[in-house]
What does this fold into?
Amino acid sequence: MDNEKIAKVLGQLADLLEFTGANAFRLRAYRNGARKIKELPESISSLVDQKSDLVKLDGIGKSVAEKCIELCETGKLKQMDELLEEIPSTVLDLLNVPKMGPKKAAAVFHELGVENLEQLKAACEAGEVSQLSGFGKKTEQAILDGIAIAVAANERILWSAADKIVTKLRSHMQNCTAVGGLEFAGSYRRGKETVGDLDMLATSTDATAVMDHFAEFEDITSTIVRGDTKMSVRLDDEFQVDLRVVPEESFGAALQYFTGSKEHNVQVRSKAKQLGLKINEWGVYKIDGETEQWVAGTTEADVYKTLSLPCFEPELRESRQEFDWAELDQLPDLITVEDMRGDLHMHTTASDGRASIREMADAARQRGLEYIAITDHSKRVTMANGLDGQRLLAQWKEIDAINAAAEDDFVILKGVECDILENGDMDIEDDVLQHADWVIASVHYGQNQPRQQITDRIVGAIANPNITMVAHPTGRLLNKREAYELDLNAVFQAAVEHGKLLELNANPIRLDLKDTYLAAAKRNGIPIVINTDSHRPAGFADMRFGIKQARRAGLTKSDVANTKKVNQLLKLIGKA
DNA sequence: GCCGTTTTCGGCCCGACTGTTTTCAGTCG
It folds into this structure.
């Protein structure tokens, strides 16, 4: 059983227990444990096999550890099965309905026998829900409206898609003279790979004018709430945008507060409490008996400074290691787009790209890059017109000629994205590969193979002396396809043993490796390569998505191989 | 249920908004 699954079961267990009115802190402990397990690069299942003491892991105590062991050894939880005899699992779907929390869901379940969304809809339409204590006509209607949303809008959108909405909203809001500062907080600002909603923050002395202006945004289809300082709307019947309007002196506090993450803020505010301070979205207050005195809030840096903390980069605010790093004065100096010198994964018209070698090279030059690698698909990828040995050798000859004729120092490396075949063989013969500067190995077929088999394929490729890097190592596509079953620790070990590199694919739907895996690769000392996998010149712009992801992993310039000058890179991979 | 440079027991972040209420519970972020 993989970590993802274990985390999911623990989360469901917490949800079910919430129906039974369990202690809120116990639920938090389960959910916190689930989060930690989900982010863990080591497989819990392997740790259990090795009889490692799970309690040593942060956030995992005796109880969660026992549940992990039970899950790994039997594939299920006795406690969970017992709960499911009382509460059907479909009841958990009720929690996806906006304005339906555990209390309301428990009420309709216990008092009306509602077990799923369909029955909830029927009960609302029959007017039964509004008869319950604590419910009224408005709540009933809100639930009815919410059922459609629960079905349609529970998918998070890609960061890149959120960024497009932000650009449009920003330009709309800047036409409002009442708006002073404007910033987008939340998971968008932290650069998470997907975004659930947008948190827009504005400073103004006239909140009404700001909200009125916001209400005119063309994509708004409904208003969820509107108060004195807060307004929430839905765009295109799905995506939610929240607006908060605060005075200028609260901008930093509000930005800190709404950027989150929730777990990061819990730590920040706990720390404040220890120091006799209170932090909310309006500022930092010194508590003196009964009185509260405002001491900071204009900028985020001021807020953190009152706690003797550095102003963490938003990408690091996940309550992972940032507080430990701060304590040791070891916060990483995060990588930026400007640090990048090369891009080592791209396609041309020879396979499934849309531009020639020269066009790709010129586009890279214009972006200020110093080198690229041309890495078209190998022959197994027939759909993409992949190249065989003969065509590759011809292409590399062409690249030699282009390099020789170049009037500047820009370098095109001769490469290939070589398929790792289902049986573990490489798609291109070694006597061809050995003439390349840069060989990417990647899996495109047989992604559903069992864990051991697919791990062996990738580990085998890493052991091949002609291979330089493994591309998109887990194969996941955000919101579309799960990562393949892979023993990542084995892959890391092989990469370390053979001195190989791993890719962070910057394509916004891939972002593979994900942040916690990148951080684990870094701990192992494995160099990361951030590539756009461009199929056209405009594709180079995707580099910023990869950089966001790298920053979330705490990567610095020195952790990423293609920040090096080309001769240093070639030295690193043993080609110079 | 988890955790500990004041603690192995006693804490565990904080406020806006709504609807159903006569002072507050539930939901959300």
Remarks:
- The two ends of chain A are 44 Å apart (CA to CA).
